């Protein structure tokens, strides 16, 4: 509330009628006590002269030149340097306050000068010309507001936005100016740009490197390849709402309007105007005509509605009635009449009729009738709440209450939660008792099919701690709700209102646009969990999801492990394995996914991954230089392992045929004495045998440890033992026995090689 300040003696109101940009008080101007030149005479008129006057003559041409130069940015920069030098000084005493300068606009509340015309700036610098620098410094103490034309402040606005310390000032363009320039400060424009960029990106708009010439904010391109500024349309809407006065009561526009006034008031909607007027009445921000009834309660909100708005409201009601009647006539033929409210019964209705389950809801008709009902209830004295309805179809309609009752939404007739009223008609209620009964049958059937009971229970409230079942691929599922056990999916999905989803997406959009304004980049991919766009700080950085956090499932392995895994994949390709068609990398560990020969199952070959293929655990690899005899690269008849003395000795001591058949030891191809003329080939073959034996022994021992660990896990789950688990325990025990025999065979092979080296011919 701005209280009028008494005009001191010797002052008069500023003829321009402008207000102080800080306190909104009317400006005054000190009148000269002696004859001074306050304006420039029109050209062609000679100034009056007095021969007896000893005062120096005034050069009107020089003053005209000085006036033009005062409109330049250079002169204004000098004024700003004075302001920056004196602004930090605290002048609490009245004696240290800057003395008003005659001919310059002055705010008595803030006790600062406000430059509203270039002539006033010229007046200050004329004092500098006369040698009175102290007067100018005193006039510029505390704070200086410059309110001049747009041509003078173009360069100054750029300096201010760049944050130069010598330009800490406020620029206010004149209210009479039609220029669309920097009427709003940079922070306000940047905040609008951040929100609009995020919204338009989700709708398919593309960013450009072009800045708008008017607001210096980025431009974007829509799907029709049309370039548009993201801020100028919003700023134009603000100017139209607060300056045109079409259907909107007159009130003063502050230099930093809030976002509520930007996004909530719709000048084309009469009900929106009623809402804005009623809220201003509650907050004490009424127009002067309605300020006299500040203590009138709710009646003053209804009296503040202009006759034009009421007339338009009646026209809208008539249109709405005809539209709803036509829709009812069309739907009555099919017997599927939508949920609507007859406007003729508005005065007798307190809420919409109760709807039945599964009935179709016509939200367009409800929105129209709800706004008409809102207007009438305001006139009847209903109290306007500060909360809006959270329903996704109600479009933030304010809640109304009568005589202390629970606030009600006039659109959905609910309490504002978005879950009751008309929204109840769209819900398919879940019968949890039937789901629990069916879940028991499903559980029995799954156990027969080989599913395994997990140690975890479903977190759903209505599932009553049902144990989760695990499929062969490790997927967990609840037999009651059908979800993964989190209590948020499956049959619980409808409990998450759509307004919550929209709020999450709006928050993510705002965060994404903010990060993009800070230099982050937007990825082309989406998050696998929430389908939100991924962002990254730079090209090589980790992808980030605003909702889920880091999205980097393919870089879980370090470089050394990944190189080892890739080498193993190259060896398996030579044995007939194929890379995964859907995804070449595992989503769990980042390892290589492959498909074994004569199989359609694709899985990870990393032995440390929980999703590893059984074939990758049991089988070992042959080295790339030792291809099987079916290979086209090596075909000498001497490279057949059956003629090797080493293998013959091994066959005599241990039946290795069974181990080779089971794939527990590699099928090696080594040299034989047939190479009588090439001694180097035999020595190379034996070195390969030694390295192969050592590698195979290490792989067998590692697989033996894994088999022991799996057996311990199964033994620890005795409470969930089934026939399938017992069978798996027996298989693992047999596998351990085979691995132990294979390890003994490999050890004896090394001893034979060390004791009986091959003969050199």
From TrEMBL:
Coiled-coil regions listed in the entry: none
Biased composition, Polar residues: where in the chain? 342-353
Q: What Pfam families does the entry give?
A: Auto_anti-p27 (PF06677)
Source species, domain of life: Eukaryota
Signal peptide span: none
Q: Where is this region: Disordered?
A: 36-56, 322-353
Return the protein name: Uncharacterized protein
Q: Which organism is it from?
A: Cyclotella atomus
Q: What is the lineage of its organism?
A: Eukaryota, Sar, Stramenopiles, Ochrophyta, Bacillariophyta
